[in-house]
Amino acid sequence: MLGRYIIENKATVRSAAKRFGISKSTVHKDVSERLKSEAPELYAQVKDVLEINKQERHIRGGLATKRKYAAIASGRKKKDAYK
What we know:
- By secondary structure, this protein is an all-alpha fold.
- It has one domain.
- Helix content is 88%, strand content 0%.
């Protein structure tokens, strides 16, 4: 189930863990070790999706930081307007 979910939704380990209510470590172990021996073809597809997610990780982090500081800046402007 985890493997199919990751492929269909291009999900990250973190989002899959949240969706299934399990830890990131469990998701990673299931899709990297158990899936490899039980369904090698599915494992290869999951591995490709997770590799893409890994390559894009720094971009998502940068966007999150940008949103954070934009929210802080807009909060300051509102406070300054009331002074």
